[in-house]
Specification:
single chain, alpha+beta
Length: 171
Amino acid sequence: MLDQPTSVTHVDQRVAKDVSQALGRIPQGLFVMSARHEQGAQGVVVSWVQQVSFNPPLVMVALQKGRAIVPLVHGSKSFALNQVTSDDKLLLKTFTRSQAADDDAFEAVRTLRRTTGSPILTKAQAFMDCELVRHIDVEGDHDLYIGKIIEAGVLNEGDVTIRFRDDGLKY
């Protein structure tokens, strides 16, 4: 008599748990991705950011599809990444909530404009002002945006936030 195969559902749940735990161990920072186009500006908290090239200096951001910032990034062909600390609850709260396309969250925070015109948060630890060089639809719930760093700088001293998640399949 042959052994009964393990239930597919049981195997899938175990594999999903293993994948979730492994993904949760990938370190993440906290950034506000910002963009401005025509009369509108948007910002959203992102944590999937990675350097992808030295020369030219390129960074990659994974951004959830359907976010209000997407048309601004495409229209302006640029974005900025503002690194924030996890203890800056006001900035995180301001840019974590969903924003309507005509909602300007930057009215409540001080910003600078640099090369691309994307909002730079004055309270950010560091910023990277980027020209969009590639948008990649990876057939998942997030798309990849590759930016060439045009200008960058450290605005405030402090500890860089690095976090891990218990469940790598959730924020």
